[in-house]
Structures are given as C-alpha cells and as structure tokens.
Amino acid sequence: MKKLLTIAALGTLTLSACTLAGNPTKKDVTGQLHGFSANQNLGLAIIGFNNGQYTADGTESQIIDKFLTGGFSLDLPTNLPTGTYRVIVFKDANNNNRYDTGDTVLSKDNGKRLIYASKANQYYNGTKPGWNLVVLSNQYVQTTLLNNYDLDAM
Question: What pLDDT score was predicted for residue 55?
Fold first, then answer.
C-alpha cells in the first residue's frame, strides 16, 4: 500500500511540474504566483514597448506550478530588441501556448522591469550587457539570477 501511495504522489508531482512550452533550461526568471486560480489555462509572456515597437514574446520555455509551490520559472529570449520588459501572466484563450490577440492579462504590474541591454549602464546605471532586473521604486539593479519576480493576480 505504501508503495502505491509513493507512486501516486510521484505521478502527481510529475504532472504538476508539466510545462506549457518545453522545460526551462536556464531558469532566468523565477518567482511566486499569488491569487491565480489553479484551474485557469495560464501562460507567461515577456512584453515591452521600445523605440515605438510593441513586443510580446510568450514562446520561451516555462513552468508554472499552480498546485504544489505556486511558483514559476521562465527562460528569457535572446532575440528581442534591447529595451525594458516585464513578465505577465495571461489566460491562454485559444490554448496555443502563446500570448496573442484575445488573451487576457491576469497579473498586476509588480514594479519591476527586465532590461535587455547591449552595453553597460544602458537604460539604468548598474546594468550589464544581457538581461538585468530593475526595481523601479528604488532603482535597485540585479544582474545575476533574476529571482523573486513575484506576480499577483488583478
């Protein structure tokens, strides 16, 4: 009986860690999700408005664990234009694992921006080339693992 319970628990754990768009390898951004219903078809996307161009990319590998930890991890794309971005949680209305027209943004702005820079101190002092995290309230810059990017439901 104990063996069956262990197998059932491991099966549940495996299913809850299923990904929407592949398994993240770099886990560039991690955080917790607060206030989202576990039965929604949720996805993550990177959005930004830079040089008059709106960008939305929801194609990178991601894991949303709504059942066990309430957390997520997301790989960041390297083919976006330099600029400022944020991660959003959206309801994938057509179940295509992409953020597109018709999908509803479900997360509040958390006051943090992901900066994709091509040179040091681009957009904010302290940023380095590549992905950076900036907390807007105090201009704190994080250039290594971008953790604690928690998202709250509207």
Answer: 84
